Amino acid sequence: MPVCTTRDGVEIFYKDWGQGRPVVFIHGWPLSGDAWQDQLKAVADAGYRGIAHDRRGHGRSTPVFDGYDFDTFADDLNDLITQLDLRDVTLVAHSMGGGELARYIGRHGTERVHSAVLLSAIPPLMLQGPDNPEGVPQSVFDDIKNGILAERSQFWRDTAVGFFGANREGNKVTQGNKDAFWLMAMNETIEGGVACVDAFAGTDFHEDLKKFDIPTLVVHGDDDQVVPFEATGKKTAQLVSGAELKVYEGGSHGIALVPGDKEKFNKDLLEFLKV
Q: CA nearest 126: which of 105, 96, 146?
């Protein structure tokens, strides 16, 4: 299997498809690089090199017990990019992966980065507070952790419904979407599942976003039941100078996977890659 060994000995599995300018995909929680297969094929078919890794503790990467924080995730991404000697990279990140992308730029800069795409992403801050009233209450994150610890298999089945918007009238979510979510989630370590909740709930990415000096596309659904648009995508587009914002009407959190929205996103992504 293609793996990158990090500075602390963790093996990060990755897919590497096609040839051309690299496009690196960063998955959300609790998924893996498999969530990007449609996009990997789309960019490879269009003449780019698509790469998607499994975060530590997710998918086929080392099932470690620790290191579930954004400094570590960003450094893992840096290890992958430098070991493969990738340059002029477009980074595409979903949900929690958006924090990984932002912290990577915050810690390692944009010398190797051509552009960035933030899809349904968590920056600048998820947790509700006096300065972030649009955010998510701490009680919601506590319930998520309790659900994982109580019976994670059923919790992931239940969570898939809101993730994809399967509880909305007229949705196009398939049983396959929900099954794939469950399968990927079950391949995340239980410790990673819980620890990542604390990481993506409370990590503040305002300072990281200030360091973006590259073309940036922000895509978010206005019916995202997991990462509220008003607290995240809307604010990120305002904070990143020159960012382009695309809001998908009725779009769920799982835009890149749900039929209809995923084709729209693929088209927008390929158009943005020309920039």
A: 96
Cα 50 to Cα 37, 38, 44, 113, 184, distances in angstroms:
9, 11, 6, 14, 20
Considering only CA atoms, give the Rg of the chain: 17
Choice among 32, 94, 253, 268 that is catalytic: 253
Query: Is 58 part of the annotated catalytic residue set?
Result: no
Task: For residues 253-272, give the mean pLDDT.
Answer: 98
pTM of the model: 0.97
How far CA 164 is from CA of 129, 167, 223, in Å, comes to 26, 8, 10
95 given a catalytic annotation: yes
Calculate what percentage of the chain has a pLDDT beyond 70: 100
**Cβ(16)–Cβ(51) under 8 Å?**
yes
**Alpha-carbon dihedral 59, 61, 66, 69, rounded to 10 degrees:** -70
pLDDT at 1: 81
pLDDT tens per residue across span 73-87: 999 999 999 999 999
- Tell me the one-letter amino acid at 147: G
Q: Indicate which residue of 95, 115, 120, 252 is catalytic.
A: 95
Half-sphere exposure of 77 (CA within 13 A, CB side): 36
pLDDT per residue over 7-27, tens digit each?
Answer: 999 999 999 999 999 999 999
75, 224, 261, 268: the active-site residue = 224
